């Protein structure tokens, strides 16, 4: 007697998330998450890709340092090119602009066919919201999903801070609802995990229903050249956020970094030969950050 193949039926995709009218406010990934992504996930890729695959191996939102980044506009264009077919979304991203991640989530959830999300490496912050658009989510055993509250850089007096907190509260609540709808977990538990900036391993993500199944290890590989490039560029992003946290504007932070390191295009160059005139830019930037924090 033959058996019908087992099919996992995806739950209904959660509703759309609100996108802020004020796009002058950006929500970022924290520097600590960028560091962890560099150490644990940089360079992880899929062995095979089809013509219905959308890859998200960069930060979410436009990336000034590379000229790339994953944007809602770019994802919408790729979906139009794929057409009315099932889509596979491969994610290895530390996150980025949470509000751009919300927009991408909304674009994906409108697709008419099944979406399979594969987390290879990490889906952190804004990237974790994007992952929730999948009808089916697969994750590597050594991969992570990380959730947290919107994280922004704000300046001003106590009234400005209160206004910022009030502005962010609905987005944190909406994200908690999406995580809860996808997982079946209590909203109160989701809120606690977001407050604690929680990393979930592959098995834990499945246990908590953030993912449905483990990715086979033989479907993943580490691109060493991409790993080196990811790490180098990620250091620039982390340094930029640290300088902004110390009081500079993003433009000032980038100008300072470029004076020490070089132009953004230099991030793509091969590492210089030791002793060939390369300065200790890591040490110089660390000293610069320390002086501003003091």
TrEMBL record:
Matches recorded under InterPro entries: ClpP, ClpP/crotonase-like_dom_sf, ClpP/TepA
Keyword vocabulary terms for this entry: Cytoplasm, Hydrolase, Protease, Serine protease
GO terms assigned for molecular function: ATP-dependent peptidase activity; ATPase binding; serine-type endopeptidase activity
Region (Disordered) location: 259-281
UniProt GO BP: protein quality control for misfolded or incompletely synthesized proteins
One Pfam family named in its UniProt record: CLP_protease
SUPFAM superfamilies named in the record: ClpP/crotonase
Taxonomy, superkingdom: Bacteria
GO CC, one annotated term: endopeptidase Clp complex
Entries under PANTHER family matching the protein: ATP-DEPENDENT CLP PROTEASE PROTEOLYTIC SUBUNIT
Family: Belongs to the peptidase S14 family.
The protein's name in its UniProt record: ATP-dependent Clp protease proteolytic subunit
């Amino acid at each position: 007697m033959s058996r019908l193949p087992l099919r996992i039926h995806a739950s209904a995709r959660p509703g759309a998330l609100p996108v802020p009218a004020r796009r002058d406010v950006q929500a970022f990934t924290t520097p600590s998450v960028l560091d962890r992504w560099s150490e644990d996930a940089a360079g992880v890729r899929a062995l095979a890709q089809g013509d219905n695959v959308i890859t998200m191996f960069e930060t979410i939102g436009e990336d000034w340092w590379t000229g790339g980044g994953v944007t809602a506009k770019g994802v919408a264009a790729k979906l139009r090119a794929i057409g009315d077919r099932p889509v596979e979304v491969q994610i290895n991203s530390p996150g980025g602009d949470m509000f751009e991640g919300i927009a991408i989530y909304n674009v994906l959830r409108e697709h008419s066919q099944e979406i399979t999300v594969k987390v290879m490496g990490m889906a952190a912050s804004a990237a974790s919201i994007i992952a929730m658009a999948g009808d089916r989510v697969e994750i590597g055993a050594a991969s992570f999903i990380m959730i947290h509250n919107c994280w922004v850089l704000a300046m001003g007096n106590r009234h400005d801070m209160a206004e910022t907190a009030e502005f962010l509260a609905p987005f944190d609540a909406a994200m908690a609802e999406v995580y809860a709808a996808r997982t079946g977990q209590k909203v109160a538990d989701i809120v606690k995990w977001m407050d604690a900036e929680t990393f979930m391993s592959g098995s834990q993500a499945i246990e908590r229903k953030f993912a449905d199944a483990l990715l086979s290890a033989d479907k993943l590989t580490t691109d060493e050249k991409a790993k080196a490039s990811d790490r180098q560029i990620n250091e620039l992003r982390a340094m930029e956020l640290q300088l902004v946290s110390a009081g500079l504007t993003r433009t000032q932070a980038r100008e300072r970094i470029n004076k020490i390191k070089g132009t953004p295009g230099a991030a793509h160059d091969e590492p210089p030969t030791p002793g060939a005139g390369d300065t200790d830019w890591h040490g110089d930037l660390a000293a610069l950050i320390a002086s501003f924090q003091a």
